[in-house]
Design brief:
The complex is a heterodimer of chains A (124) and B (136). In chain A, helix 5 packs across helix 6. Chain A is an all-alpha fold. Chain B has 136 residues and is mainly α. Chain B is built from seven helices and no strands. In chain B, helix 2 packs antiparallel against helix 4, helix 2 packs across helix 6 and helix 5 packs antiparallel against helix 6. Chain B is globular, with a radius of gyration of 16 Å. Classes of the chains: A mainly alpha (124), B mainly alpha (136). The interface between A and B is large, with 39 and 50 residues.
Chain lengths: 124, 136
């Protein structure tokens, strides 16, 4: 299960690295897709930098849970951007699938994540 | 099995009350916000227009926020709820960023995300162990 966890996290991380790098390099299809979502072209590099930073935080073992939270926010932004333009259901769900990979990959490697998420909450 | 409070409550009194106050504040704000969107309160239509967001999405967004808030309030699912709310606030931040709002409006959902996580962090030692902020 631990190796399965690494595999899920690796799929997500490789995708984020490729996506983040493509936002820094800004090839034509990436610019087109982002502008179609209504973002200014000048926003592409900062968005790519944020994704790469969150991915690094997720990869570092000491900060991986914090990285997962930051990536969740990033992916929530991707979902909202697609919903706003009333994109296809697949496009809207696609970032959610990655959020599941991020958290499932982490929880399978570190059972403390599963405990923290579902066993007991705030208790206030 | 230990009870939730034994497992997770901080020892210090002021910290406990700070956490409870933030928990209540975050919850009330989200209930208020989802209610405002559900009934399209004055200002909601204007905010949606500024974000270039279809007003027909308001009840959907309101229902999602309400459901996530309920998960956040139930002790057993509060951490999971906080994760899902993080996605919701990421969406709000992205919409404000896209629409070219100023830094305060753009960062407000991020600040609110911190307000949502702070009580969870303070009240749940599992979360404290996993998120190494202020690690002792």
């Amino acid at each position: 299960m631990i190796y399965f966890g690494y595999a899920l996290s690796a799929v997500a991380v490789l995708f984020f690295l490729a996506d983040g790098a493509s936002k820094l390099l800004k090839p034509e299809p990436v610019v087109k897709a982002t502008v179609q979502l209504g973002y200014a072209e000048s926003a592409i590099r900062p968005i790519g930098l944020a994704l790469l930073a969150f991915t690094v935080i997720y990869v570092l073992p000491a900060t991986s849970a914090f990285g997962a939270i930051l990536l969740t926010g990033y992916l929530g932004g991707a979902v909202a951007s697609n919903i706003r333009v009333q994109a296809t259901a697949f496009n809207c769900m696609f970032p959610m699938i990655f959020a599941i990979l991020v958290w499932a990959g982490l929880a399978l490697r570190n059972p403390q994540i599963y405990t923290a998420l579902f066993h007991h909450g705030a208790g206030a | 099995m230990q009870t939730t409070v034994e497992n997770s409550a901080p020892q210090a009194g002021p910290m406990l009350w700070t956490a409870r106050a933030l928990y209540g504040l975050a919850t009330l704000f989200m209930l208020f916000d989802s209610g405002a969107k559900l009934f399209v309160a004055p200002g909601v239509a204007d905010a949606f227009r500024r974000q270039d967001m279809s007003l027909s999405l308001a009840p959907v967004i309101a229902t999602i926020l309400l459901a996530l808030t309920v998960l956040y309030v139930i002790p057993r699912t509060s951490v999971f709820g906080a994760v899902l709310l993080t996605g919701y606030f990421g969406g709000a931040c992205a919409c404000n960023l896209r629409a070219g709002f100023g830094p305060f409006e753009t960062l407000f959902p991020v600040i609110f995300g911190i307000v949502v996580w702070a009580p969870i962090y303070l009240l749940n030692k599992d979360v404290r162990r996993l998120i190494p902020v202020l690690r002792r």
